Amino acid sequence: MHINCINKEMLKDKKIIVGITGSIAAYKAAYIIRGLVKKGAEVQVVITPSGKEFITPLTLSTLSSNPVISEFFSNRDGTWNSHVDLGLWADAMLVAPATASTIGKMSNGVADNMLITTYLSCKAPVFIAPAMDLDMFAHPATQQNLDKLRSFGNYIIEPTEGELASHLVGKGRMEEPDMIIHRLDTFFASQNDLQKKKILITAGPTYEKIDPVRFIGNYSSGKMGFALAEVCAQRGADVILLSGPVALTASHPNIRRINVESAEEMYQVAISSFPETDAAILCAAVADYRPAAASLEKIKRESEGEVTLRLIPNKDIAASLGAMKKENQKLVGFALETNNELAYAKAKLEKKNLDFIVLNSLSEPGAGFRVDTNKITILDNTGRTTGYPVKSKQEVALDIVDKLVDLLK
Ligand code: CTP
Q1: Which ligand 1 atom is nearest residue 283's CA?
Q2: Which residues does ligand 1 sit against, CB inside 6 Å?
Q3: Of 1, 84, 85, 323, which one's alpha carbon is 20 to 30 angstroms from that of 209?
Q4: Are residues 173 and 205 in the same domain?
Q5: Over the stretch 191-239, which tens digit does the pLDDT of each residue have?
């Protein structure tokens, strides 16, 4: 896969610790190291004892032009390998591949090898590229450990779906080396480009009450909005994440999450928060209608028989913010369409006074609700239309935030 680099110079002279653990994907670390060195980075490899079962230190030291560190002491002369010095030396640490075991040790501070002690001493940003079987990756133990690492401000480079070493197919394949290098490149290029900016993001569905146990909702998972919140926070913004009911956690310390249920509650918080922000990204799938009156008691089948629900329109949050928008504020909306996509998206862009709109089409494979990927087209208010390939929601979030950063400059 060919990746366009944002800036060829971004990784030049950057000092990067590459941590390697005991996974079949360890061979891909060789490509990562070669790629980093080619871009002018200085690489120091730290490998776990089981990592050495998968790739030899000789290969790694040759590629990185540095001795590989694995033990606390050098076997040859007893010299102490200082994990503290190494942690302070680095501009970034990348653990690729990261096994479930290493992820568990990192999240719990189990410092029984040189890689973990280096991680615990590292002051620089840490990137973690998991690699494991699909069931291990999906297990709540792994997911909770990853959430904990996110809450420490570490960056998780999501594994992709594909055939795994077990021959099972699913999510757990380490991201490809050139994508991992691109991620580091992007990080250094975008570091703090949203510092001192405040961004409001709406995410997830809204629930409109029918009675105390039933509601009108939609399939939105909130994943796109949460990915946007993480990216904005990582790039230095203070984020207000206004979320409908979703089963997701937002862990970055720069994110202030406000939970709401209905479109009306989301509207109230959005309207009061917007004036203090530099931009709003309206990613929520807000219900257009709500029942005219929610029943205070559960509607009973026997007593009611046939039920007719009268629906009344909710307020349009995007259009209201569009009407309030000041010259220096930017507004980003989403459009999810099934037909006449470009025409509908353009009409929403204009009607809601947005700066740009992100169009996803439900007819595109890999786009839409409940999937981890998305395929977008961005239409802006200067008439420009840009299409993007299918990417993970994290990568899509980076593209959207790049566009917003350009507008806020
Ligand atoms: N939106 C909003 N408040 C609403 C409805 C939509 O803020 N009450 C926002 C969405 O978050 C999205 C954009 O407006 O950014 C477009 O949402 P969409 O549901 O596609 O548009 P609608 O105007 O509701 O049009 P329709 O559902 O008829 O296609």
Answers
A1: 11
A2: 202, 263, 282, 284, 286, 288, 314, 316-318, 333-336, 348
A3: 323
A4: no
A5: 789 999 999 999 999 999 999 999 999 999 999 999 999 999 989 999 9
What domain count does the chain have?
2
Please tell me whether the overall predicted TM-score, pTM, comes out greater than 0.70 for this model. yes
The answer to whether the beta carbons of residues 365 and 371 sit under 8 Å apart is no
Q: Are 301 and 276 part of one and the same domain?
A: yes
Residue-wise DSSP of 93-154: EEEEEE-HHHHHHHHHT---SHHHHHHHH--S-EEEEE---HHHHHSHHHHHHHHHHHHTT-
User: What is the number of the ligand 1 atom nearest to the C-alpha of 334?
Assistant: 15
Q: What is the CA radius of gyration of the chain?
A: 24
pLDDT, tens digit, for every residue of 291-335?
Answer: 999 999 998 887 767 888 999 999 999 999 999 999 999 999 999
Residues 221 and 180 in one domain: no
Q: What are phi and psi of 287, to 5 degrees?
A: -65, 135
Helix, strand, coil percentages for the chain (3-state, nearest 5): 35, 25, 40
Tokens 């949050």 label which residue? 317
Domain containing 340 equals 198-408
285 C-alpha vs ligand 1 centroid, how far in Å?
7
- Ligand 1 atom with minimal separation from the 352 CA: 14
